[in-house]
Amino acid sequence: MLLYAYFFREYCTSGRQHTQVCLLLVELSADLREWGSVRESITRAEHTVMGDIDDHLFRHQLRALQGLASLAEGRYYDAAKSFTSVSSDLTNEINSVISAEDIAIYGSLLGLATFDREMLHSLVIDGTFKVRLELVPDMREALRHYSRAEYGQCLSILQHTLKRDLLIDIHLHSHVPALLDMVRDKCIEQYFQPYSSASLEKMGNVFGCTLKEMEMVVVKLISNGSLGEEARVNIADFTLRVESGDSLDRKTRRRARVAAAKMGAHFTRSAEGMIMRKFLPLLLWHSPYCYYSNYCVFLLFYFIFNRCCLY
Fold it and tell me: pTM, whole model, 2 decimals?
């Protein structure tokens, strides 16, 4: 690395030589998995070399390598933006690090996991990047199913057709589980968006998982707010429901009215009990029926007193 940097400073006299040394520095850093050095070399190339060369592919080579660095650091959205902005004219010029098929796979999978539907169409499905999808027909089919809201078929292709190859990819293998989970969560969000209620069992059949697995995924999405604050899981009939703002306001007002009515009834019973306990001995003492035996009066007083205390 130091030797290449020394040659870059001392012996490069033309723009093409600067380009070659910059690419060698970036490729070597990528092979060593020194992604900080990759970013530093790309930044240096953009500020010192870019204006002195006529090679229009050099910028796109740097973008592809920048996407690799972002992918390795877990910045999936930035990586997707970098890969999808690479020109289709770039094929195998840097295939020692990343090939044309790799760019197609990485850009489409990362875009599917991080882009919203509008951005996915503009940058991947309908943009200039769609030329690269011819290199990976399985990923193209997965994107086509996603575009048609056929989320089960999309996930089936990713899980059963592409996952095996993705897990042995030198750059992508450690990120595959997280990316596929992101795609699945995004598909569930898109699937439930038009509905106010959906059966977890039917959703499990669509997405190819059991009722318990679907329940756990939905609970996780509710916890992180992906399905909205109003989404709830009804365990009684295993349904996912979302309530509108007006419905929530009506329920809140109804609960307030019920609580106020209960409070008023409790206050009335308590007040009546206090009055009876206060004046009952006087009423019994001055009653014209005081000739009853003291024992009967005591039983009557004890019964009324205990009945009032129950309130």
Answer: 0.70
